Amino acid sequence: MVLLGNDEFLVELSKLFQKARNSGSITMTMKRYDGRTKPQPRDGTPAVKNPEYKCLIRAQSGSKKISTVIEQKEVEKFSTAYSNLLKTSVNGLKRLKKPKKKGMATQ
């Protein structure tokens, strides 16, 4: 998995969207990240007193995996850029046909 900067991640993500448009899909995951790369000690004491939480975002398409870590102060800037990317990239979706509901039985 490749850890990229925020701007580099958005550029690579747009390339993944272009590649997946014809065939394939993209899996995105987001989770809270406290910056630790080692597990917590078993005695229950926290390794860091007041960790500044970050957001870890991963994207996968086929065998290509990319990720980025977003600091708290950069969340608003990244989220606006990410939403603009989604608006431009997810425009060719096909509308799903909803299954017809069975009518209520008359009594």
TrEMBL record:
The keyword RNA-binding applies. Residues 31-41 have a biased composition (Basic and acidic residues). Keywords: Cytoplasm, Ribonucleoprotein, RNA-binding, Signal recognition particle. It is found in: Cytoplasm. Residues 28-49 are annotated as: Disordered. GO terms for biological process: SRP-dependent cotranslational protein targeting to membrane. The keyword Zinc does not apply. SUPFAM superfamilies: Signal recognition particle alu RNA binding heterodimer, SRP9/14. GO terms for cellular component: signal recognition particle, endoplasmic reticulum targeting. Coiled coil: none annotated. One of its GO terms (molecular function) is endoplasmic reticulum signal peptide binding. InterPro entries: Signal_recog_particle_SRP14, Signal_recog_particle_SRP9/14. Heterodimer with SRP9; binds RNA as heterodimer. Component of a signal recognition particle (SRP) complex that consists of a 7SL RNA molecule of 300 nucleotides and six protein subunits: SRP72, SRP68, SRP54, SRP19, SRP14 and SRP9. Component of the signal recognition particle (SRP) complex, a ribonucleoprotein complex that mediates the cotranslational targeting of secretory and membrane proteins to the endoplasmic reticulum (ER). SRP9 together with SRP14 and the Alu portion of the SRP RNA, constitutes the elongation arrest domain of SRP. The complex of SRP9 and SRP14 is required for SRP RNA binding. Belongs to the SRP14 family. This is Signal recognition particle 14 kDa protein. It comes from Arctia plantaginis.
